[in-house]
Design goal:
alpha/beta, Rossmann fold, 10 helices
C-alpha cells in the first residue's frame, strides 16, 4: 500500500465544491469532469447499443471474449453518471476477465424517480435472458448507486420468478435509503466525498416522496436475500456508506448466501475507479475479476477457459 497514493487521492476528492446549491445539470457536469480523468485500459473496445429498450455501452476485450456477460450498473446517486463515467470500472473488469460487459444507461432522477431505474435494469436482464443468455453466464455488477441496483435488481428478478444471475459484485454499494448505518456518523470526517446531508439531497430526488423503508430501497436493513447467488461486496474503510455493505453481508450470511465482504483500509468510496493510480484499486479489481471468473460458467456448467 502506498500512503502517498492514498493521500493524493484523498486530496483530489476533498477539493471544495462550488459554493451554494448546485443544479442537477451542474452536478452531472462536475461528476463527468471528475470521471473523465480515470484510466481506461487500452485493451478494450466499446460499442453503443441498446438493451431492454435503453441505451447501453458494450465493452469487450480486444480478442475473442470468453463466455459470459457482466451486466453493469453505473454509480451516481441515481441522479448523475452514465456508462461513460463508469468506463474505468467496466473496462478494467473486462480486461481482467476477458468477459464482455453491457453497461446500462438507466433512467435518472429527478426526471425519473424510483422505481424507474430498477424497471430499466430488470428489463435489461430480461432482454439478456430472452436473447438466449444462460443465467449461469450472467453476473450483475455496479458501483455506488449501481452497486445498490445490482442487489435490488436481483431482488426484483427473484420476486418476478426469473432465475437469478450467477454472481453479484458491488463496489461501495448504496443499500440503505434510510441512512441508518453507524458509519454515517463514525466515518463522517474520514469520508472525502459524502456527508449525510449530501446523500439526503440526491436521495430525495430519487425517492420523490417514496417511503425508504422498503426492500427495494433499503435492502441492507429490510431485504430477505434467500436464494441469492454468491456476492462480493467491496468497500473502503473511509466511507460513510461502509455499513451498507457490512449489514448486507450479514443479511446474506443469515440467509445462507455465499458472501465475501472485502474492506480496504484508508480508501474512499468507489476507490476502484482509481485503477492505475492507486495500488489498492488494482488489487481490488484483481480480486473482483477472480471472483467473477470463478462463478461465471459456460453453458453446460463448466467455467470459461
Amino acid at each position: 500500500m502506498s500512503k502517498e497514493q492514498r493521500a493524493r487521492t484523498d486530496a483530489l476528492l476533498r477539493r471544495p465544491p462550488p459554493e451554494g446549491p448546485q443544479s442537477v445539470a451542474a452536478i452531472r457536469a462536475g461528476f463527468e469532469a471528475l470521471m473523465s480523468g480515470m484510466i481506461v485500459p487500452d485493451t478494450v473496445r466499446t460499442t453503443p447499443t441498446t438493451l431492454g429498450g435503453r441505451p447501453a455501452l458494450q465493452v469487450e476485450p480486444d480478442g475473442s471474449p470468453r463466455t459470459g456477460t457482466i451486466l453493469y450498473f453505473h454509480g451516481g446517486g441515481w441522479v448523475f453518471g452514465s456508462p461513460g463515467t463508469a468506463l474505468s470500472l467496466t473496462g478494467n473488469l473486462v480486461a481482467r476477465t476477458g468477459v464482455r460487459s453491457y453497461s446500462l444507461d438507466y433512467r435518472l432522477a429527478p426526471e425519473h424517480p424510483f422505481p424507474a431505474a430498477i424497471e430499466d435494469t430488470l428489463n435489461a436482464y430480461r432482454a439478456l435472458l430472452d436473447s438466449g443468455a444462460d443465467p449461469s453466464t450472467v453476473a450483475f455488477a455496479g458501483d455506488s448507486a449501481g452497486g445498490g441496483l445490482a442487489v435490488t435488481t436481483c431482488l426484483a428478478a427473484r420476486d418476478a420468478g426469473l432465475p437469478t444471475p450467477a454472481a453479484i459484485v458491488a463496489f461501495s454499494p448504496g443499500l440503505d435509503a434510510t441512512h441508518s448505518g453507524e458509519s454515517m456518523d463514525t466515518k463522517a470526517g474520514a469520508d472525502p466525498i459524502f456527508t449525510r446531508e449530501r446523500l439526503r439531497h440526491t436521495g430525495a430526488m430519487y425517492l420523490a416522496g417514496a417511503d425508504p423503508h422498503q426492500p427495494l430501497l433499503s435492502p441492507a436493513v429490510l431485504a430477505d436475500l434467500t436464494g441469492f447467488p454468491p456476492m462480493l461486496l467491496q468497500a473502503g474503510a473511509n466511507e460513510v456508506l461502509l455499513d451498507d455493505a457490512v449489514r448486507t453481508a450479514a443479511r446474506a450470511r443469515a440467509a445462507g448466501v455465499d458472501v465475501i465482504l472485502d474492506i480496504t483500509a484508508d480508501v474512499p468510496h468507489v476507490f476502484q475507479s482509481f485503477a492505475g493510480v492507486l495500488d489498492e484499486a488494482d488489487r481490488a479489481l484483481d480480486r473482483a475479476a477472480l471472483f467473477l471468473s470463478q462463478h461465471l460458467r459456460a453453458p453446460g456448467g463448466s467455467r470459461p477457459a
